[in-house]
Specification:
Its main location: mitochondrion. Helices cover 53% and strands 0% of the residues. It is mostly helical and 110 residues long.
């Protein structure tokens, strides 16, 4: 004849679940409330985002700003400014503020 074991009561099962959570390093949550553990267990993305962007490098612009007495000249910037001056001379430069295409369209709408 097999011996029949008594059915464990709810408090005993709750104690067992709490002890099991301690042993296996789990969170004991008898009410089933939202705890945010799923998010907290995820790998942090901060270091990955920081690695994505290039490290700050020293540019000629920064050096000239730090040491204006050296009077260094950035050739690329100089060429760019010359090109802008040539375009303006031919009338191909950027329009003055409030005189561009969008400004003229906005005036027509009114």
């Amino acid at each position: 004849m097999a011996s029949i074991l008594p059915k464990p009561n709810k408090t005993r099962l709750a104690q067992l679940a709490e002890l099991s959570a301690k042993i296996f390093n789990n969170v004991y949550n008898p009410k089933g409330e939202r705890t945010g553990n799923k998010i907290l267990r995820q790998k942090l993305i901060g270091p990955t985002i920081v690695e994505w962007y290039p490290k700050r490098i020293i540019t000629l612009r920064k050096i000239t700003d730090m040491f204006p007495s050296m009077k260094l000249v950035d050739q690329e910037e100089k060429l760019r400014l010359e090109e802008i001056a040539k375009r303006k001379k031919r009338g191909k430069g950027a329009p003055k503020k409030g005189k561009g295409k969008n400004a003229s369209l906005a005036k027509k709408r009114k």
